[in-house]
Design goal:
Two copies of one chain form a homodimer. With 338 residues, chain A is of the alpha/beta class. Helices cover 41% and strands 14% of the residues of chain A. Chain A contains twelve helices and twelve strands. In chain A, α2 crosses α3, α5 packs across α12 and α8 packs parallel to α9. Chain B binds a DNA duplex (30 and 30 nucleotides) through α2 and α4.
Chain lengths: 338, 338
DNA sequence: AAATTTATTGCAATCGGTTGTAATAAGGGA
DNA sequence: TCCCTTATTACAACCGATTGCAATAAATTT
């Protein structure tokens, strides 16, 4: 920069101001300096700048890591979400740092930010840490979480309207004439819990008694859903449809059903959640509850930047949308349902 | 840090050295200072440190962006790969910056690094930029690419043995007694081109004349593969199996086949590539060529760090592995194949 | 005990920007 | 023409670490 200043015959400070479009510098010299900078392809050292300004223009995204081990077993939905966050961040001129806790505690979030690695964080899913996160918020607020909106929640979250999504899914099956709906998903996760409550609400509204036998709570991991479905089938419990808490779970379930020669959608109808890209490619194409993750990404970024500017964030509940494809149909045609 | 120095009754430089385990400082004071730092939970300002040392301990990963527009339409395989890169980077104590070109030219790679945003880059796929990248390498080498190993290539790449993978896929179908193999994939991409060549080699070896009608070159985008398959079916060309250049393409193709009441694997067998997580969930479960993307992630990181240390990188060709599931079977049983 | 070597520690410059404040140049009115 | 106001530009301190080199303290040798 000193060199550039010399070239332009001005001082370093003038160059600095010129490059940042500071009106203290006359437009003429500003343009001249910018021109020179371009010619000599001078690049501003972002590191130095960030160092002085104490900001990083970087947001870290913390992906959930199942059992703090590898997160290769990630749901494609989160990855799509990540893409959308990246887009939104880019538009806002920020960088995206992909972070990983590897079993750290919640206040690692604060540590990490204070370390000046990032200006703030986006957490994907509050998991079972809701209380801790709520507590963290009291002293440190530079984060936004993707997930459920819980009672008494103080931090800012963005997520789909899980209760309604679950309700919508169950209602749809009921409207098709299905009566024995199973629920599949890990209720430890608050988002899933809400979807489950929505499912219960729909049953209640239809005057159907919930049946605990049909409430499958399986961990998020790869094959647990498959096994759970198999167990359900073998238990002999009667069911004619499944509300799954994610598309991946739905797919696992379908695989299990096929193995027992149960046809989807005829014998058993099944509805997923998320509408990941591959749902439409699936066979049968998955009827599912769509989460608008593009909007979600934008809202999270918007809120985080708002917080960093000292403004009030506003949690948002994105509307969910039913995407009807072919994995659900009217009441069982064959006798094979149980 | 000054405060800490005062607290410890030593100078700032001693503190700095103590915290970085410099043997110039006696072990006793080193421990004492570290202890104090912990007590007063002092955190080193990484930004300041990086600024001085001119390094960032950050590696940027550049994901391919179809038509320089949104990369929401990303193949899950790349996302799995991303996860593995993140793991490898973490082990090596580096951060992962997720970058996006948004239509910039190749030498943006150099710009970006020189800007001190990262120490180096990992490019996912060389796309059609092979020559430019090769040229860039002459003057700037802080990057590694995931992709094909091409003749005359100077830069370092890590990727699966695409030629062999393609060959392996075709050979498997041939070994099952299939004779009319179609190929589905975008040959503009060098990786796909190599798989295609492997496919051709297998045909040749089996004494089968390739048929241009069966060589579908479709862009990577979402529905192109579906349409291409439909066109193939409607063209009336006779084929009994498909070698797809990715699992996602295979899934699209299967959807098209189903629509025309062609059974997979009986009427048409189909083999994918990648072995993404959902392949085993698919219906039918996809027989596919597995790329070891965990190993791939590690190798890329290892090579990049090697380059940054001034050592020679070594391109690697990962062995591929055939994963047999149920989307391929012996010769067509029904007459429906065309 | 003095001299010399070796082990620690401190001083001060430095990285490459930004910005408050002082200094200078330009413009306007009397 | 001179003085005062306003628009530009320059000076220099600062951000928070690292490190070469000088200085001091401790240990060893004579």
């Amino acid at each position: 920069m000193d060199d550039l200043a010399e070239l332009a015959g001005v001082s370093k400070s003038t160059v600095s101001r010129a490059l940042s479009d500071n009106p203290l510098v006359s437009k003429k010299t500003r343009d001249r300096i910018k021109q020179l900078a371009k010619e000599h392809n001078y690049r501003l050292n972002v590191n130095a700048r960030n160092f002085f300004l104490k900001e990083t223009l970087t947001i870290a995204v913390l992906m959930p890591s199942a059992n703090n081990a590898d997160w290769r077993i990630l749901d494609p939905f989160f990855l799509e979400l990540l893409g959308n966050i990246a887009d939104a961040l880019n538009e806002a001129g920020h960088e995206l740092l992909l972070a990983k806790t590897s079993g750290q505690s919640v206040n690692w979030i604060e540590e990490y930010t204070k370390l000046q690695r990032c200006d703030g964080m986006i957490l994907i899913g509050q998991g079972s840490e809701h209380d801790k996160i709520n507590h963290l918020w009291e002293t440190f607020d530079a984060f936004v979480v993707w997930g459920a909106k819980l009672p008494g929640q103080k931090y800012c979250s963005v997520g789909s309207d899980n209760f309604n999504g679950g309700k919508m899914a169950a209602e749809y099956l009921l409207s098709l004439g299905r009566k024995r709906l199973a629920f599949l998903g890990d209720r430890e996760l608050p988002e899933v819990m809400l979807r489950f409550k929505g499912y219960l609400a729909a049953l209640k509204q239809a005057g159907i008694e919930p049946d605990e036998q049909l409430e499958l709570s399986t961990p998020f991991e790869s094959d647990a859903a498959f096994t759970a479905t198999v167990r359900l089938i073998e238990s002999g419990a009667s069911f004619d449809s499944i509300v799954a808490a994610s598309d991946v779970l739905a797919m696992s379930a379908i695989r299990a059903l096929k193995q027992y020669d149960l046809e989807v959608p005829d014998d058993i109808s099944i509805i997923g959640y998320d509408d990941i890209m591959l749902s439409s490619y699936y066979n049968p194409a998955l009827t599912t509850v769509r989460q608008n993750c593009a909007e979600g990404g934008h809202q999270m970024v918007k809120n985080l930047l708002r917080i960093l500017d000292g403004e009030e964030p506003v949690s948002v509940l994105l509307p969910t949308e039913l995407v009807i494809r072919s994995s659900c149909s009217g009441p069982p045609t064959r006798k094979k349902s149980r």
